[in-house]
Write a structure and sequence with these properties.
Structural class: alpha/beta
Oligomer: single chain
CATH architecture: Alpha-Beta Barrel
Number of strands: 9
Largest sheet: 9 strands, mixed
Strand content: 15-25%
Distance between the termini: 26 Å
Order of helices and strands: HEEEHEHEEHEHEHEH
């Protein structure tokens, strides 16, 4: 992902994975999907070229708002947290080279999870890949194969067809989740429940961290 106003040297370091524009880092409870309820250290990367109109972290979109940090500093923060699991999210984390981040955290026994739209090529080696596909910039074909979890956001009725379309592309072992778009959760929940009852391979994902009022 191109970041305006950076030097050529900084751009090279970003491409090598030696720098990462981090929006925030924090220790909390995973609120969504298969690992909901698990304590984890979150690394939220700045910059997203997908741009969902209902995104609840739109402030993460512009990577130039977040000075790139040395990757060793990011790794140290994660290890100092003593968390057993690190979740890399965004923004869109696959806009960046995550090989060094994954290699060093994995070497130190940390389980690595990523939450991604899959719109860019996968870098790094992950213990869990949560793929959340978006219509305006669909996943690359190879990312579907790596998805341990497919999480489709339901904003309107047409998203159920989108969910079915994406489910055909992931592995048979992939976990399938439907998650209501937060601002329309009351409107859409009945339809989501009905869909899951009729298609029991799917499960319901809720943003439980918002109900618990935690980050």
């Amino acid at each position: 992902m191109k970041i305006k106003g950076i030097s050529i040297e900084t751009e090279k370091l970003l491409k090598r994975g030696e720098l990462l524009p981090v929006m925030e880092e924090f220790y909390t409870i995973q609120g969504e999907g298969f690992h909901s309820g698990k304590a984890a250290w979150f690394i939220r990367v700045g910059g997203c070229d997908v741009g969902c109109n209902w995104c609840d972290v739109k402030e993460s979109w512009n990577p130039s708002h977040f000075p790139a940090k040395p990757i060793q500093e990011v790794i140290k923060h994660a290890l100092d947290s003593k968390a057993k699991t690190v979740v890399v999210t965004g923004g869109e984390p696959l806009n960046y080279n995550l090989d060094i981040l994954c290699k060093e955290l994995s070497y130190n026994g940390v389980a690595l999870h990523i939450e991604t739209s899959g719109s860019s090529s996968l870098s790094g080696k992950w213990d869990w890949v949560c793929l959340s596909p978006k219509r305006n910039k669909p996943p690359l074909t190879d990312v579907y194969f790596h998805a341990d979890e497919l999480k489709v956001i339901i904003s309107d009725e047409s998203d159920f067809a989108w969910a079915k379309e994406n489910a055909k592309k992931v592995r048979p072992s992939s976990e399938l989740y439907l998650q209501p778009e937060w601002s329309k959760r009351e409107k859409n929940m009945k339809s989501i429940v009905e869909f899951v009852l009729n298609n029991p391979r799917w499960k319901v994902s809720l943003q439980t961290h918002k109900y618990m009022h935690i980050p």
